[in-house]
Amino acid sequence: MEIPYTVEPRPDTGLYNAKLGIWLFLASEVMLFGALFSSYVLLRTGNPNWVQHPMNVPMATLNTMILISSSVTVILAWAGLRMKNFAQFRKYGILTLLLSFGFMVVKGIEYNAEFELGLFPWTDNYMAVYFTMTGLHGLHVIGGIVVLGYLLGPGAKMWKTKPEQFTNRVETFGLYWHFVDLVWIFLFPSLYLL
Amino acid sequence: MGHDSPEAIQAEIKKYMMVFAALAGLTVVTVAVSYLDLSIAGAVVVAMIVASIKGTLVAGYFMHLLDERFTIYWILALTMLFFAVLMFLPAATVSDHIGTSTEVAQEGAEEHH
Fold first, then answer.
1. Fewer C-beta neighbours within 10 Å, C or N terminus of chain A?
2. 3-state per-residue secondary structure call for A118-166
């Protein structure tokens, strides 16, 4: 039996099912990261002796630029499919993949420098919050790499059989990826600059 | 979501590039403001305002929320309500006197004796 509403919108929601699904998932993600932000505010405002270690702002700024750029490349990849241009999807999809690897490499260099300074998740509350939030965000980036890798690799076969459904898959991946970018936009000033 | 004619998509791409330029510019602003000698409250307000503008651009244009179905708006409105509750929980702890009222009562009683 075919899965219904993979392309055409469901009459009651006005959306194809995967789009409704990804937005419900993102709503749960808002609560997940929201709980961590709330905990951070509570820990920080409740501690008069809060220790804020100086973080590597230039590296984090570079990572912000990388993620913003990857948001553009992922939307250009989707635009390529909408224009029936698979080569454009492939080009910008691979670029997105490279940028996401770049983000993780920069984050790895940052973590390494922090470990060398003796800063670990158990050092103090700030470092615990920093590693928890950036670590969870990093896991989301890795999740995105896996999904995009699938869409560019074995999953790309669907373009030949069900191009509209494949385009929708890339759109839902894009929504997830923009959310990962959105979280970083708030993490960056909260953890590095304040 | 916009129309799927190549011209309409090309026009969308131009819009995305402008949003990208705005996001890059606002990132520079975020970092530059952090070097100003602002109070912590001032720095938090400015940083969150700039981050909110950037977030609105990403959600509005890249996630095309400016042109979406009402189903999604309702999901997000409910999410924002619960998110606001989450963010105000720390503030609620300020007015939480459980544990302190007993001490205050005891101190008051000792003063009377």
1. N
2. CCCCCCCHHHHHHHHHHHHHHHHHHHHHHHHHHHHCHHHHHHHHCHHHH
pLDDT at res. A3: 80
Token readout for A49 is 């002796």
pLDDT digits (tens, 9 = 90+) for A136-150: 999 999 999 999 999
Calpha distance B21→B31 (Å, rounded):
16
What confidence category does residue B65 fall into, taking pLDDT thresholds of 50, 70 and 90?
very high
> Which residues in chain A are closer than 8 Å to B82, comparing Cβ atoms?
31, 34
Nearest residue of B to residue A9 by CA position?
Answer: B69
User: ipTM score here?
Assistant: 0.91
Of A38, A45, A189, the CB nearest to B47: A189
Say yes or no for a CB contact (<8 Å) between B75 and A61: no
Candidates B72, B73, B82, partner chain A, best to mutate (most A CBs within 10 A): B72
Cα(B31)–Cα(A58) distance, integer angstroms? 9
